[in-house]
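#structure-requests
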Amino acid sequence: MSCTNCGQQEDILTLPTGCNKNGSCHTLSCDKLSVFDWLSNMKLPDTQPNFDIYEVRFKNGRKEYFRNTDKLSLCTGEAVAVATSQGHDIGTISLSGELVKSQLVKHNINPNTGDIPKIYRKATQRDIDIWEKAKSRELSTQQRARLIVDKLGLKMKLSDVEYQGDNKKAIFYYTADSRVDFRQLIKELAAAFKVRIEMKQVDLRHEASRLGGIGSCGRELCCASWLTNFKRVNTQAARYQQLSLSPTKLQGQCGRLKCCLNFELDSYLDALKKFPDTDKVLLTEKGKARYIKMDIFKKLIWYAYEDSDDYKWYPLSVEQVHEIIALNKKGQKAASLSDLEVEEEVKKINFEDAVGVDSITRFDKPKTQKKKRRNRRNKNQIKNKKQKSNNRKPNTNSKK
C-alpha cells in the first residue's frame, strides 16, 4: 500500500514505494477499511451542535467510538489519546460528524448511553513516541510468543500482536479449531514481556482480513479492503450459479468458501424462478427425456433421452420446456426433441488492429517463395563481391 504523501521518493521517475507503516502514517489514504466522509463539506445549522462522538481507528482496521466530553477541536486523521478499560490507548480519528450516527445504528450502539468512553486529549509528542516504541515491539513479541506456544504444545496459531498505546498491555490474536487452555501460556507471556496479556480468538475470515492479500481475481481481498460483515457461505451458492464444485477454485485464502459467492447469488435466484423444476421428466413421442444442464444467461436447458442409443443433448428454451410440461399435465406427448431443439448461435470473434500494431498471427505465416528467392540472390551477390576483391591484383605502377 502506498499513500499520496509518503509513497514516492524524491526522484519523480521512481515508482511508488509506500511508507511501510501499515496504515499508521495518518494520511488516511493507505490504511485498510478507510472511510470517505462525503458530508465533510456541508455545514450544520448554527442552532445544531456538532455530534460529540468520534470513530477512532486502531491497528488493522479495529474501530471503536469515543465521546468528546471536553469539546476539543478535532479533525479526521488526528491522533488522540482515548480511555480504555485498562489504561489509555492511542488511535487515529477516522470519521466524525453526522456519519457517525449511521455507524452507531449499524453497530447497535445507543449514543445516549453513558457507557461510551471518552477522549482524553490530543496525542502529544511524548504519547506518539511511546506509541511508536510499543509498535516496534510487536514483531519480535510475535516471534518469541510463537516459540512459547510451540514449547507448550498448544494447538493454536498466533496470528498477530497489538500493543496498547501506553505500552502496558498486549493483545494476542489467535486462531484455533477447538478450545485451548492457555492459562499457563498467559503466565509465561506476562513473565517474558512484563505487560498485561489479553488473548483474543478470531476466526479464519477475520484473520485473513487482518493480514490482507491478493485474491485469485487479481485485486485486494474484499475482507481486507471494504467487507465488514461476514455472512455464511455454503456450497449451495455455487450450485445455484452453475459453478464447478472444486475446492481449489471455491476456497479463499482463509481456507473457507469465498465471500464473493454471495455477491451475485440473489440475481441468480431471481433468474432461476423462471426455470422449470429440473426433476421433471419430459414425455415425448420418442420417449422420456431427462434434464442434463442449463445455461442461465442464454435461458437454455439441455435434455437427453433416457432409454435410447442416441446420446445427443438437445437444447430447449425455457418457454418450450414449460409448454411441454403443460402438455404432459393434460396427458399429451410433445414432439420429438430433434424437432424442437434450438440452434445455438456461434459468434465468430474477429480480432482487429485496435492499437496500430501488426497482426499477432504474422509469425504463423510461412515465408513466401519470393522472399526466399530474394534472400538467396542477396547471398550470391555478397559472395561474388568477395571473390572479385580477392582476384583483384595490386597496382605496382607508381608515378614519380
